[in-house]
Amino acid sequence: MAAMRVSLAEAGLVKKPSHSASTRVRVSVRLRPYMSRDDEGKEGLCVRGTGNQSLEILNWRNTMETMSYQFDAFYGENSSQQEVYTGSVKPVLSHLLTGQNTSVFAYGPTGAGKTHTMLGGAQEPGVIPRAVRDVFQMVREESVLPASQDWEYSVSMSYLEIYNEKVLDLLEPQDQDLPIREDKDKNILIPGLTQRAIGSFSEFESHFLPASQNRTMASTKLNTRSSRSHTVLLIRVVKSQRVLPFRQLTGKLYLIDLADSEDNRRTGNQGIRLKESGAINSSLFVLSKVVDSLNQGLARVPYRDSKLTRLLQDSLGGSAHSVMITNIAPEQKYYFDTLTALNFAAKSKQVINKPFTRETLQTAALKRQREEPAPNGYALKKIAKESHDSSAEISDVSPTACSPPVSMFDPSVMVRLLTLEKMMKGTPEKERLNLLRTVQESRQEIKELQLKQKELEEQALAAQSLLAETCKAAAAAPSIPTPLHRENQHAKPLRQRAIVASQQVCPVQPLSSSIMTCKAEKRKMKVSESDVLENEESLETRLDSAVLQRSRDRILNLLNTGSLKELKGLQKIGDKKAKLIIGWREINGAFTQVEDLGNIEGISAKLLTSFLKVNILTAITH
Ligand SMILES: Nc1ncnc2c1ncn2[C@@H]1O[C@H](COP(=O)(O)OP(=O)(O)OP(=O)(O)O)[C@@H](O)[C@H]1O
Q1: How far is the CA of 224 from the centre of ligand 1 (A)?
Q2: Ligand 1 mutation target, pool 35, 107, 115, 228, most atoms within 8 A of CB
Q3: Half-sphere exposure (CA, 13 Å, Cβ side) for 468?
Q4: DSSP designation for 18
Q5: Which of 190, 455, 501, 506 makes an SS bond possible with 514, Cβ 3.0 to 4.6 Å?
Q6: CA distance linking residue 581 with residue 568, whole number of Å
Q7: Does ligand 1 come within 6 angstroms of the Cβ of 319?
Q8: What are the binding residues?
Q9: CB 260 less than 6 A from any atom of ligand 1
């Protein structure tokens, strides 16, 4: 049964069920060739392949016996980089485009070929260059499919090493130990880690090659270029929907070259090398404990006991599709290292991971959509030229940050829909149908609101131009009162400081001030409550009922669709009341009239009256 995580997080994060089943860590073993003809001639074989998935090694207790091991794949000393890559790595890459994580790591004793397998050379590129090339290829291929026309893709990279238990950024080297954090969804984050957008393989190389020079390497007796650190290359593929509901799938590929475990007597390590070796060995010891705890089903898995295991948390017993390539050497001097590596590999293949799709909603896209509709067609767009892991992992814009008052993309409505959609998952068929109906109704409601908004805007525009013309006419012929002026000749004039700078109200003022007001720009003037109360009895009679109705409609619209921020923009409504309004409409649906506000507990009749007066007048002035 597929592993599922479905939750609607506060930051607009939505996880959707994945269709991939629990999966075992795939373990391959690669035997490197002898490095010297002399050794090959002198020594008898201590380890050899017996099939595509099996090998045997001499039993040191009884050299007449061999011990057999079975893995997902075995690559002999003549195997090519291409074989290892296509056999063990390529098959798991496709998960990236479904928003799932993939992890490939090389393990084994020093000089056994980990870096050769992961990195390779110009003639024989290893897993890293091949995988990155294929990621771009996969993105290109998927993006031209008809089903992908509403999606855009971006690829980015981060690169780090763990050296002496410190996490160091290789793209922007600083002597700063970066923290490793875990969010509530168990995603491992490294705040402050550089993330670079890459649009092509050559762009990847332009960052990766110089950064690789920053790796901590040293010469040991056994390997002249020995990796003294664990390195982690992270390739992030983000697939973003350009239309509603703006889903975003993020797949992460971890390519990890582990430093080797060492016997310091054989490596001749001293001083700083000895310290490095101690850090490497202890992290690999914790790695072994992690695998043991997972296999025994222990409640506490000691991921936190080393930086390496913290970082591999997702790869071992976590949500990634993981491949471990164990590198071994044929020489007899490596015998016990080989045996240790094989035993670790054998227990690692029992570790079960539970991959799931990581899906978010791009609230930033909601915002952008309002400003300019996205064009159709494929674009491998770069994400922000440089950003940091923390911001990339967590949705950065809260739903309430979106501004316009009425839109079918209003985030609170989106959240409502998503809540409903979320409820639908895991609900019996019959109830699901009901919920589906509700979702459809909500969508319809949003459409209607949008149409209504358009209509209101058109009406407001028409009224404005009509009134502007009226004002102009009044200015040109001062002896002819405007119709509204005529009707209200008896009305008490508004006090000068209560004059509202709007074309809608200019007819009710003495002509001189009308002209002045008509000339005034559309400045936002807050109307104080005392002004309103003072002119209370004349207000209704002075204002055109259509104008009044329009401003009521505006407030009603705002009450029904406004975000927290927009509601707080209303006079008399603070944070608490704005939340009460949102809560009320979530439960009871739309307000049918502004007076419905009085149904909310905490909004008294008195408050309602002054709310209406102040806000109606304010709405008129806008
Ligand atoms: N399959 C292979 N075919 C040919 N040469 C290989 C192979 N594997 C490793 N080598 C060579 O063996 C040497 C040691 O390999 P490598 O540096 O990759 O080991 P390592 O496990 O990464 O060592 P360390 O952990 O000390 O960095 C290198 O010169 C490498 O080119």
Answers
A1: 10
A2: 115
A3: 10
A4: -
A5: 506
A6: 10
A7: no
A8: 108-115
A9: yes
pLDDT given at position 154: 95
What ipTM does the predicted assembly reach? 0.97
The alpha carbon torsion through 295, 301, 305, 310 (nearest 10 deg) reads 90
Query: Which CATH class, in words, describes the domain spanning 23-359?
Result: alpha beta
Predicted TM-score (pTM) of this structure: 0.59
Residue type for 473, please? Answer: A
Query: Using a 6 Å cutoff on CB, does residue 563 contact ligand 1?
Result: no
Q: pLDDT tens digits for 158-178?
A: 999 988 888 999 999 887 899
- 223, 231, 263, 284, best to mutate for ligand 1 pocket (most atoms within 8 Å of CB): 223
Taking the C-alpha atoms of residue 214 and residue 94, their distance in angstroms, rounded to an integer, is 30
Kindly report, as residue ranges, where domains of CATH 3.40.850.10 are found in the chain.
Answer: 23-359
Q: Residue 115: CB within 6 Å of ligand 1?
A: yes
Helix (H) or strand (E) holding 419: helix 411-424
Q: How far is 188 from 313, CA to CA, in rounded Å?
A: 8
- Contact between residue 163 and residue 276 where contact means Cβ atoms under 8 Å apart: yes
Per the structure block, which two tokens stand in for 132? 């990155």
Q: Mean of the pLDDT values across residues 348-370? A: 70
Residue 230 near residue 148 (C-beta atoms within 8 A): no
Amino acid at 415: V
Under CATH, to which class is 451-621 assigned? mainly alpha
- What tokens does 164 get? 């002496």
Regarding the beta carbon of 230 and ligand 1, being less than 6 Å apart is answered no
With beta carbons less than 8 A apart as the criterion, state whether 450 and 406 touch.
yes
Residue scoring higher pLDDT (183 or 358): 183
Sign of CA dihedral 56, 60, 63, 65: negative
Q: What is the mean pLDDT of residues 125-136?
A: 97
Rounded distance from Cα 212 to ligand 1 centre (Å): 16
Residue given tokens 């915002």 in the structure block: 367
CA separation for the pair 298, 143 (Å, rounded): 43
Give me ligand 1 centre to Cα 73, in Å: 19
